[in-house]
Amino acid sequence: MDTSLVTQILREGIWVAIKLGGPMLVLSMVVGVLIAIFQAVTQIHEQTLGFILKLIVVILVLLVGGGWMMETLLDYTHRIFELMGTR
Hints:
The chain is an all-alpha fold. 92% of the residues lie in helices and 0% in strands.
């Protein structure tokens, strides 16, 4: 394996991690900001409110996009094993 191939595999792995984790992180951040604004306006400072809603959003994202996430991860893993077999 040469350096360019290893770099390409690592770059692709980082991109896969961003694609898989990005939607959950962005949506939970948006929910957190909306809850913070709601709590600031209503002066309700309940810690569990934000946590529960973020948890629900993450679970919904996993239910909706879980198949796509698994397929993306499996494609990347198959590609790595194919490269290991040819080298």
